[in-house]
């Protein structure tokens, strides 16, 4: 049997501990196995662990498998988790109901080890292939950072999560100063190389769990910083400006310094019910323009609430 690539996480959600033990034994060589004995606990564990595959019992007390699956399908954080229903119902109608609900497959009871292992192995391989394709689709072709489409999706998910848990979320918009003049002087090939170096600095600086650097468009970049207060954002913005300046890329035509620099707009807040992710982006964008008006090669923190900033 061909080994499945390491790093797979399989979550079993079932209110029968005997079934959990049996399934765990059958699939434990195909990845890390987690389990939950109720739908609510399974959803919470899924959000924390982001499993590649969820083996979900249909007939559970309280929240049944269909209700749990519906929550999974509605949660942006779990969009990449595949669900296989485990069910004692073997009629064609029951099978169709499972597939119509969005499951990738179903496993009938009583459990057959060879069938369970084959279906789990097949869908883990599919998940790995889909993840690779998704990574390519979400990547900026020049810099290798995430692209704007992926960033917008992650911002919406993180904004909702931080609002739900009342945690501070930070955002930094970065613009390479006088980049048109750089391209005019050195040409687009040198311009692309400059953007790649700046992108590498951003990638190196986004190391904490959940931090995300993306190319926002042209010479603009954006960094999402979970669990980050306004004071921490100020320190991050100052560090970022120093780091990009320290690249030492010559730029004699620039207005702020004879080397490449960047202007940074910062914003951080604990999202409330009246706030939105687009409004947060707009607030950071206004702070970026304030940094440019103040002379470039600096960061500016937007103040007040989102509503204040976009009024």
Automatic annotation (TrEMBL):
**Is Phosphoprotein one of the keywords?**
yes
| Reaction(s) catalysed by this chain's protein | 2 GTP = 3',3'-c-di-GMP + 2 diphosphate
Domain named GGDEF: residues: 167-304
* Response regulatory domain mapped to chain residues: 9-124
Which SUPFAM superfamilies does the UniProt record give? CheY-like (SSF52172), Nucleotide cyclase (SSF55073)
Q: Where is the signal peptide?
A: none
User: What's the top EC group for this one?
Assistant: transferase
| MF terms (GO), sorted A to Z | diguanylate cyclase activity
Concerning PROSITE patterns, the annotation shows: GGDEF, RESPONSE_REGULATORY
Which NCBIfam families would you find in this protein's record? GGDEF
| Protein name in the entry | diguanylate cyclase
Q: Report the source organism.
A: Pseudoduganella dura
């Amino acid at each position: 049997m061909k080994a499945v690539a390491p790093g797979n996480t399989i979550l079993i959600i079932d209110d029968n501990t005997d079934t959990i033990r049996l399934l765990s034994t059958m699939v434990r060589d195909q990845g890390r196995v987690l389990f939950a004995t109720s739908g609510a606990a399974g959803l919470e564990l899924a959000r924390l662990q982001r499993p590649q595959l969820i083996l979900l019992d249909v007939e559970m007390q309280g929240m049944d498998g269909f209700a749990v699956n519906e929550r999974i399908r509605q949660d942006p954080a779990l969009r990449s988790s595949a669900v296989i229903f485990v069910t004692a119902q073997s009629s064609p109608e029951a099978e169709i109901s499972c597939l119509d609900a969005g499951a990738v497959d179903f496993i009938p009871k009583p459990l057959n080890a060879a069938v369970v292992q084959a279906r789990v192995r097949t869908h883990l391989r599919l998940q790995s292939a889909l993840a690779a394709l998704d990574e390519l689709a979400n990547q900026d072709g020049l810099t290798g950072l995430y692209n704007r489409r992926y960033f917008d999706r992650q911002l919406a998910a993180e904004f909702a999560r931080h609002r739900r848990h009342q945690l501070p979320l930070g955002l930094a918009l970065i613009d390479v100063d006088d980049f048109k003049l750089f391209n005019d002087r050195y040409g687009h090939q040198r311009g692309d190389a400059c953007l790649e170096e700046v992108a590498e600095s951003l990638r190196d600086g986004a190391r904490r769990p959940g931090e995300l650097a993306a190319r926002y468009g042209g010479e603009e970049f954006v960094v999402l910083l979970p669990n980050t207060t306004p004071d921490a954002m100020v320190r991050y913005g100052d560090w970022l400006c120093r780091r990009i300046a320290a690249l030492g890329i010559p730029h004699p035509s620039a207005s702020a310094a004879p080397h490449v620099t960047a202007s940074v707009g910062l914003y951080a807040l604990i999202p409330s019910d009246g706030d939105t992710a687009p409004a947060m982006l707009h607030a950071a964008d206004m702070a970026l323009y304030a940094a440019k008006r103040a002379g470039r090669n600096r960061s500016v923190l937007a103040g007040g609430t989102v509503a204040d900033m976009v009024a």
